[in-house]
Amino acid sequence: MVQKAVQRASFHSKCQTSWLCLHFLLLLLLSRIAASSTIVTTLPGFSGDLPFVLETGYVGVGESEEVQLFYYFVQSQRTPAQDPLLLWLSGGPGCSGLGALLYASGPLKINYEEYNGSTPTLHLNEYAWTQGANVIYIDAPVGTGFSYSTTTEGYYSDDYKSVADLYEFLSKWLLDHPDFASNNLYIGGESFSGIPVPMLVEKISDGIKAGHYPAMNIQGYILVNPKTDTYIDDNARIPYAHGLNLISPEIYEATKESCNGDYIDSTNETCLAYIQTIDELLSQINLLNILEPSCAAVSLEPNNIKWNRRFLKEKSKDDILSSPKSSAYWCRDYTYVPLGVWANMKEVQEALNITSGTVQFWKHCNSSLNYTNVVTSSVEYHVNLTSTGVRALIFSGDHDLSVPSLATQEWIASLNITLESSWRAWYIDGQTAGYVKKYSNDEYSLTYATVKGAGHIAPEYKHKECYMMTDRWLAYYPL
Questions:
Q1: Catalytic one of 400, 402, 405, 445
Q2: Residue 387 catalytic?
Q3: Does residue 366 lie within any of the structural domains?
Q4: Nearest one of 187, 202, 186, 161 to 383, comparing CA atoms
Q5: Residue 218 covered by a domain
């Protein structure tokens, strides 16, 4: 507490005008009112005490703090005071940060391979990103995971409100955790978070210029298989499917000619006929990873990923409490069943310090949010960030057909920044882990990489490769 008091005094000394001091003190007061947290030392399903620091809690945002955003904060297992601070947003919108924590980058993993219908068990993840970074996993926007609103109106959200809530959350969280205020700050996210992440980074940059407190030490952002531009992302699927040998050269060339390269908005009848042919060819392909079974017929839930010319619906992974029906196919959806069982256990929610009665039934991904997606492209935000002094790491699983790597490379090329190093392999244990290229200008650098064999989302498929990549990049080492 003494150290926190000293840090707050340091913040206070930085006030340059009476208005800024008043603004800071008001935020500080609100952070004390709005934030509640607890240190979690044990979790059901894990044997013994947790060998890392896990904090969970709520931060109230909004005019009357009706929105309570829930978070899971894992301190770095290396040197927390010096290691970067990463705020991580999951996809959806509506997917809980608990999924990323337990299936992708967190220090724990659920033993879904051994799940038999009883209490799920947890084990340590040897490729946790938290080995060298402090990570805040958040349930956002409101209605996601354990986040809730005290009013019905508070549950209505859109891209702009969500980003405003996240900015307020981070401001209050840093005021309540001044020990981490000077750490290098990064914003990261996956899938749909390709929309809010650059928006939030720009808002933070604007706040720094305006002198907002706390002054966030933003250094960059990380995006994984990011949805970025509805048209570019969707239009790239047909060329990418051709590159993956899912469409014959004859059909592809004929479609390309008749559609003039526009597979989304064309009204040409010949083009539409070829599109229908391609729809049929890809109807049984798993767009999230073309190598895995298409599980629409045996899935635990409706298959919301469709081959759709207009818009990619983010797959909802609503978990149920029953065991999967027998099937000749293994489906990745089945691996999320124990997560739903675990997160809905009373003793788990008590250990996480969930406010009783706020969430009736926890879902991995809540597909019934009152959320309006009004920003269909975040490219302009990336363009704006090229003059802010931040850096970016963007990577794709190379077997993801839902957000093809071709699309990501297309909008990156449109940023008009210089290619610093051309396409080359990057390695783990002497083996090709993927391919990488780097762009830069005087104030911005962007590293783009693929992860060989990974789907959507890459860290769920290739734990070691994604950990090594991000650890190197955060340490300013080349991939």
A1: 400
A2: no
A3: no
A4: 202
A5: yes
